[in-house]
TrEMBL record:
SUPFAM superfamilies: Formate/glycerate dehydrogenase catalytic domain-like, NAD(P)-binding Rossmann-fold domains
Record's keyword annotation contains Oxidoreductase: yes
Membrane keyword on record: no
Organism name: Actinacidiphila alni
Cross-referenced Pfam families: 2-Hacid_dh, 2-Hacid_dh_C
Protein name: D-lactate dehydrogenase
Domain of life: Bacteria
Recorded GO MF terms: D-lactate dehydrogenase (NAD+) activity; NAD binding
Domain D-isomer specific 2-hydroxyacid dehydrogenase catalytic: residue ranges: 7-322
Entry keyword set: NAD, Oxidoreductase
Lineage: Bacteria, Bacillati, Actinomycetota, Actinomycetes, Kitasatosporales
Length: 332
């Protein structure tokens, strides 16, 4: 089968081509799938998309008109896909059920450490031969409290690292994970976690019940010098409320690898354009805010697992199999 893969990063392309090579033809495009780029998918029965593709009802209808029957998304998240409409159209939709949890967990800790020890500011100074320590005072994480919001595979990997730091670990999720309790986690109510934690890291999926899980009220519960990390989904945080919290001089640092309006911005070069997103522009003005472009998953190990799972999803579609990766099954 010939597959169109869109939103393919340059470093991802050789891995994708090597994985598909033995069994399927693949055409890789850096372009993301939107209404404007829809004609590129015409004639492809299978289309593999990235998490920043816009797969709403009009795009899905356009894909079907062009002959597409399978969407194989290269991510675990799928909040960008109108699954109900895909089912009505008779499309098959699959995702990557899981990949290396360490890629995201380790990156979340990298953000936390960079903020706590002012590493970005320090590196910028030394490039200008300024070797002062003014404004670079950090804190030991050892002995302090970390709050882990979401204790699935990534949250568990994050917790294991927290244990290595010698931290008191609080956790919250809809169900207790025995692996986390064995690591010393105490499950508590979410508000208590926000009140008591010196560092909070978000590892829950985005769904209606978690949209703006961190809003004005919970931001208000946080310690003035607490650090907030989000490497999950941008919509978990009310960005406007976060800006107001920072303007009030609160929080010791914020690390964002995701942003709720990142589609059309993240993964693109916007350096020669005017930033029209006022909220993102304001976030970037704070020296204790660190924003990265949804790269937490971006390791060789994770990409290998993602592309391998994507190839299996295409194989399963051809064979008519339903697996844990199937979001909308193939019509009989």
């Amino acid at each position: 089968m010939e597959v169109l893969a869109t939103g393919v990063q340059r470093d991802e392309r050789p891995l994708l081509e090597a994985a598909f090579g033995p069994r399927h033809q693949v055409r890789c495009l850096e372009t993301f799938l939107t209404m404007d780029t829809l004609p590129l998918a015409a004639g492809y029965e299978a289309v593999s998309t990235s998490v920043n593709a816009v797969l709403d009802a009009p795009v899905l209808e356009g894909l079907v008109r062009g002959g597409t029957k399978l969407i194989a998304q290269r991510s675990t998240g799928y909040n960008n896909i109108d699954l109900d409409h895909a089912e009505r159209l008779g499309m098959t939709v699959a995702r990557v059920a899981s990949y290396s949890p360490y890629s995201v967990a380790e990156f979340a800790w990298a953000l936390a450490m960079a903020l706590n020890r002012r590493i970005v500011r320090a590196a910028s100074r030394t490039r200008d031969f300024d070797f002062r320590l003014d404004g670079l005072l950090g804190r030991d994480f050892h002995g302090r409290t970390v709050g882990v919001v979401g204790t699935g595979r990534i949250g568990t990997a994050f917790t294991a690292i927290a244990r290595g730091y010698g931290m008191r670990i609080l956790g919250w999720d809809i169900a207790v994970n025995p692996a986390c309790t064995e690591l010393g986690m105490e499950y508590v109510e979410l508000d208590r976690l926000f009140r008591e934690s010196d560092l909070i890291s978000l590892h829950v999926p985005l769904m209606p019940s978690t949209h703006h899980l961190v809003g004005e009220r919970r931001l208000g519960l946080m310690k003035d010098d607490a650090i907030l990390i989000n490497s999950s989904r941008g919509g978990l945080i009310d960005s406007a409320a976060l800006v107001e919290t920072l303007r009030a001089g609160r929080l010791g640092g914020v690390g964002l690898d995701v942003y709720e309006e990142e589609a059309g911005v993240f993964f693109y070069d916007k350096s020669l354009e005017v930033m029209t997103d006022d909220t993102l522009a304001r976030l970037l003005t704070f020296t204790h805010v660190l924003v990265t472009s949804h790269q937490a998953y971006f390791t060789v190990d994770a990409i290998d697992e993602i592309v391998s799972a994507t190839v299996r999803n295409v194989d399963d579609y051809v064979a008519g199999r339903i697996t844990e990766c199937t979001l909308v099954p193939r019509n009989p």
